């Protein structure tokens, strides 16, 4: 947005940060300085949480596709039943991972 000669001379501030976001950033900086392994663990938890949310979204989309493409009684469609069963197992695994991640984040 700004020409390079202006951008070099001034510091642009973004005042859109929330107090919780600022607290998380400062905690991250402090943890990285004092206990780098905890900061790395926290970053891994964040990435894992994002991946889990992505998987849940994919599961939802798959279920919606099966339900919308199903013709007749869905309980008679073997493919639909297998997809729904595997989706249930996967979503339970993700919920367990998220529970572990939240307790680990509280420890950090």
Residues in β-strands, percent: under 5%
Helical segment count: 4
Order of helices and strands: HHHH
Radius of gyration using CA atoms only:
22 Å
Unreliable parts: none
Main pleated-sheet profile:
none
Main structural class = mainly alpha
Percent of residues in helical segments? over 70%
| Overall pLDDT level | 81
Morphology: elongated
Q: What separation lies between the terminal Cα atoms?
A: 39 Å
What is the number of strand segments? 0
Description:
By secondary structure, the chain is mostly helical. It has four helices and no strands. The mean pLDDT is 81.
Layout of strands and helices, then pairs:
Elements: H1 4-9, H2 19-34, H3 36-69, H4 78-107
Helix pairs in contact: 2-3, 3-4
Q: Descriptors for this entry?
A:
108 residues, mainly alpha, 0% strand
Give the structure's gist in a few sentences.
The protein contains four helices and no strands. It is mainly alpha-helical and 108 residues long. Helix 3 (36-69) runs antiparallel to helix 4 (78-107).
């Amino acid at each position: 947005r700004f020409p390079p000669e202006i951008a070099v001379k001034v510091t642009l501030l973004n005042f859109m940060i929330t107090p919780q976001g600022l607290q998380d950033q400062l905690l991250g900086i402090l943890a990285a300085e004092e206990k780098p392994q905890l900061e790395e663990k926290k970053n891994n938890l964040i990435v894992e949480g994002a991946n889990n949310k992505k998987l849940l979204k994919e599961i939802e989309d798959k279920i919606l596709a099966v339900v919308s493409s199903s013709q007749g009684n869905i309980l008679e469609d073997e493919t639909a039943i297998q997809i729904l069963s595997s989706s249930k197992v996967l979503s339970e695994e993700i919920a367990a991972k998220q529970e572990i991640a939240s307790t680990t984040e509280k420890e950090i």
